[in-house]
Design a protein that fits this description.
Elements (H helix, E strand, L loop, with lengths): L3 E2 L2 H12 L3 H13 L1 H8 E2 L2 H7 L4 H16 L3 E6 L12 E10 L5 E10 L1
Parallel strand pairs: 1-2, 3-5
Antiparallel strand pairs: 4-5
């Protein structure tokens, strides 16, 4: 499959697609995201130019921490990943706002379920 336009529908679709893959394939994608989330995003989605300019400014610490969390959430069957993309009109290059929330619970069957939510404002 070719690159997808970066929008909420396609991000949701990609999450479902990756979560449905066999474990070895999911592991490869999770590892690529953990290694360099920005490179994986650019290989997977088509972005407006102003998004790409802002991604180029992401500090390494943001890329590492976010990539690790998203890669982990995509890999584990019992983790739910939510990426929220508020509609933002094109603006000059500036700071990207990133919020994340994590919640978890242990069931009586010993399974620990995690929900990880990321919200980006460009």
């Amino acid at each position: 499959m070719g690159k997808l336009e970066f929008n909420q529908q396609n991000v949701d679709r990609k999450i479902i697609e990756v979560k449905a893959l066999p474990e070895p394939e999911r592991q490869k994608i999770a590892d690529a995201i953990k290694l360099d989330i920005r490179a994986w995003l650019l290989q997977t989605f088509i972005f407006p130019e102003h998004y790409e300019k802002r991604m180029a400014l992401w500090p390494k610490s943001l890329r590492e921490e976010t990539g690790f969390g998203i890669g982990t959430a995509l890999f584990y069957d019992d983790w739910k990943l939510e990426i929220k993309l508020p509609h933002n009109p094109p603006t000059p290059v500036g700071k990207t706002k990133h919020e994340q929330k994590v919640s978890g619970s242990a069931g009586s069957n010993g399974v620990y379920t995690v929900t990880k939510s990321h919200t980006w404002s460009w």
